[in-house]
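Protocol check, entry for the methods section draft. Step 1: assemble the input record (protein sequence plus ligand SMILES). Step 2: submit for complex structure prediction. Step 3: store the structure tokens unaltered in the notebook. Ligand used here: zinc ion. Step 1 record:
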Amino acid sequence: MKAPALEQGDIFRLHGPAYFTTFGDSLSREQRKALRAIAVCRTAALGGHVDQCDQCGYRKISYCSCRNRHCPKCHGRARAQWLEQRAAELLPVEYFHVVFTLPQLLAPLALQNQRLVYGLLFRAAAETGVAAASVRNYTLAYCAQCSAGRTVGFRWDRPTRFAQ
Ligand SMILES: [Zn+2]
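Step 3, stored output:
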């Protein structure tokens, strides 16, 4: 797989200090840790090793990974593989993807009370999904929280396709 021209680490290294100056106080400890880890992943800052060919002398430097679970460089391949496996489980039916979001005004409250606010959001989204499915006479077949923890996707299927 060819590396993209610009990676998240590049962006965080370029703009991270200014971002931390402006928004650092509103970030959780985990968010700060992830941003810092991604910024230094596979750079000289984490150390590394040099492989050298005994025959031609070709040298290749490999830097260490951050291993942060949010790092796309460390877990990008595993994430893509997981998505492919989930896609293989999909039923051959019509799907709808529904995204629920909070008003921007509530973002600071949600950031400081993630468990409570996202719990309420997910409960409201689930109840809305069930209600919407019943109005359309669909069967709510599946509900999933995305990995970012900010959206809930629902899949409906027409009852005739779920013969029981
Ligand atoms: Zn990493």
